[in-house]
Amino acid sequence: MNEKIKVLITLEDDEKITLELYPDVAPKTVANFLQLVDNKFYDGVIFHRIIKDFMVQTGGYYLDGNDLHLKEEIPSIMGEFSENGFENNLKHTFGVISMARTSDPNSASSQFFICTNNTPHLDGSYAAFGKTVDEESNKVLRKLNQATTSPIHPTLTDFPIPPITIKSIRRI
C-alpha cells in the first residue's frame, strides 16, 4: 500500500470520516470512486442500509423531501478481488471501505460500504480499496453503526431512521 489518496466524507451534521484509498490494491475501483467524488456524485446521497456490527452502505439513493430516489446509473467496473481472478489482500476489518455489488462479480458501480466490524467472510469476494485513518472517523463510524433502522421497502429493509445524508465527499 504505497500510494495513499485521502478523501473526506462530510455528513449533513458536519461529522466527518477520513479515508485513505489504495490505488495499488484496487486501481480501477479507486479510479472509479475518485471520478465520482470529483464529479460530486455523492453529494446528497443517503446511507440506505445499515446493518449493526456489519457495515454501513451508501452511494445509490437520495431524498427529495420525503421521496426516495435512485441515483442515475453508473457503468459497472470489474470486481478487483481474488474470487474474480484479481489479487487484493486488503482484509474486511473495521473501517475498511469496499464496493457493494449484486451477485454479478463485475456489477460494482457507485455504491460502497464501510465495515463496522471484522467481516472475514467478505475477503476475496468484494473489492476492498481503503480504510479509515483516525479515531475521529472510527467514532463517527461507530455512531452510524448504532443507527435505528426500519424496513421502508421490500429491498430496503435496514434503512436508517432518521435518514443520514452525506453532504459531500472530497479529496484532501
Protein model, in words:
There is one protein chain. With 172 residues, this protein is mostly beta strands. The protein is built from two helices and eleven strands; from the N terminus they run ββαββββββαβββ. It has one domain (5-171): Cyclophilin-like (Cyclophilin), CATH 2.40.100. It has helices spanning 27-38, 135-145; strands at residues 5-11, 16-21, 45-51, 55-64, 67-70, 96-99, 112-115, 128-132, 149-150, 159-160, 164-171. β3 (45-51) and β4 form a beta hairpin. The radius of gyration is 15 Å and the shape is globular. The chain starts with a strand and ends with a strand. The model has no long low-confidence stretch (mean pLDDT 96).
State the total count of DSSP E strands.
11
- Largest beta sheet: what is the strand line-up? 1-2-8-6-7-4-3-11
- The structure class reads mainly beta
Order of helices and strands: EEHEEEEEEHEEE
Low-pLDDT regions: none
Number of helices: 2
Question: Could you say which overall geometry the principal axes of the C-alpha atoms support?
Answer: globular
CATH topology: Cyclophilin
Q: Which architecture would the CATH scheme give at its second level?
A: Beta Barrel
How many structural units, i.e. domains? 1
Helix content: 10-25%
Oligomeric form: single chain
